[in-house]
Amino acid sequence: MAPSIPKTQMAMVFDKPNGPLEYREIPVPTPGPDEILINVKYSGVCHTDLHAWHGDWPLDTKLPLVGGHEGAGVVVAAGNQVTNFQIGDYAGIKWLNGSCLSCEFCKRGGEPNCAGALLSGYTVDGSFQQYAIAKAIHAAPIPKSCDLAQVAPILCAGITVYKALKTSEARPGEFVTIVGAGGGLGSLAVQYAKAMGLRPIGIDGGDEKAALVKKLGGEYFVDFTKSKDVVQEVLDYTEGGSHAVLNLSASSGPLNASVKYVRPMGTVVVVGLPPDAQISSDVFTHVIRSVSIKGSYVGNRADTDEAIDFFARGLVQVPIQVRELKDLAAVYEAMEQGKIAGRVVLKCSD
Ligand code: NAD
Ligand code: ZN
């Protein structure tokens, strides 16, 4: 029997950047021919959602906006062109809600780089609501064995760090330094790195994050709030530099340091998106040490399946704290202050 779908639902909405975050009744959207309607059970809160609310980036959001792009739930309706989901399947809302699939970048697997990309919780309404729309071809298939609260953060944080680790080209046995290791992306990066045979070193601030990073498999932790010299500490521990670095923090401060402790022939991957930030590297040293700086932006559909598969096989756990959907403003406040270890997941529907 087809599930009954209400006409209205509750959502977290804002009307202008930094405007009030309102828990509001809005209509349940109707899926188009190539779309599915997902009853969102849980949604992770990513730092990107906070950047979107602040209007931090040189890319406008839709307004009014329902944020959120780590939504896990159940398919309750599908358009007549949809062939890859059935009613009742588990599905995930990712940052990349849709892309054209026919441009140069989509054809090469660079779906996030598509100029026509639709972004959940940014250019289209996202997962901070009870019912959300996704293009069926881009929605993430989630195995029924997965816990929906736990799997939600895989849909952005997991995919992103897994792809960034691949982009780093670090090989098993090599060091990867994870900047922002105690946050949402970082706490997953430590575990994907470990599962991929790498040696994760975490950088973050405070004892709670130090304990979390160690618990998740971090081999060494540098507390940036206490270390006398972060660069030297990484160089010493790795005996000459980290083979790869993932910059996952939302601050610009640590970016230029990462270029100094990467090992010769190593790669710095830039993932975190602090507003108005620059990364710079002294040309002589850059050339002589032959280091690379690469950007990495979420992942494509294959990265999505692979990242979820690591989770489904129990290789990564998601350190979550579950809160109510209407608590979003308080979650943003804690995130701003760097007080969230791991990821907060909002309960969107029963
Ligand atoms: P988060 O707030 O959960 O985690 C960030 C962590 O960085 C925190 O633990 C914080 O304590 C730590 N940190 C702050 N200053 C630091 C410093 N100087 N050195 C080391 N650590 C420091 O945020 P998140 O949800 O993990 O997102 C992180 C960033 O990644 C955001 O800018 C977000 O927009 C971006 N992001 C990018 C992509 C992409 O595809 N490139 C995808 C998702 C998120
Ligand atoms: Zn995200």
From TrEMBL:
Keyword Protein biosynthesis on entry: no
Annotated Pfam families: ADH_N, ADH_zinc_N
PROSITE patterns reported for this sequence: ADH_ZINC
Highest taxon listed in the record's lineage: Eukaryota
Cofactor section: Zn(2+)
An example molecular function term from Gene Ontology annotations: zinc ion binding
Family according to the record: Belongs to the zinc-containing alcohol dehydrogenase family.
Name of the featured protein: alcohol dehydrogenase
Source organism per UniProt: Tortispora caseinolytica NRRL Y-17796
